[in-house]
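Here comes just one.
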Amino acid sequence: MNTTILTHIIRLVLLFILQVFILNYLEVGYGIQMMIYPLFILLLPVELNVFYLMLIAFGFGGLIDIFSDTFGMHASAAVIFAYFRPIIFKLFAPRDGYDILMETNMFQMGFGWFLRTFGILILIHHLWFFLLMIFRVSEILYILQMTGLSAVLSFILCILFQQLFLRKPKKEA
């Protein structure tokens, strides 16, 4: 089995366990929900076709929905994340384009790139999730508050996850 496929499977399992068995049970207050699973979608290969990307996101989000009793909200938000990923990646592409051998994590791409791309994508993901969850235009300020606070906490958790579980590139002498 290809080592990159095995790496992605291990990441999927690890992020799934963290999300379903730990983060779903943490109470922060103000309706804040920490979601680390979108990081899996971000870390998939750049050259992956958007159809397959959305299919993987739907399956992974659906699996989280099954264990979270959220009736498709995670699946829908994950598909939105996957749909916008190539668009945002194109907006912030390096001058020479993406190297297909390079991972799209904060160590390989740089923290500035990660902050812009993942920051925008996590905001889109969370906004869609909370719009579906509340589904009332009259609660737009509450939706925006939950989106902002949850996105910031989720972003910080994703940085910590990368610090703990991803290999930093070796510096060339």
Summary: Residues 3-165 form one domain. DSSP finds seven helices and no strands in the chain.
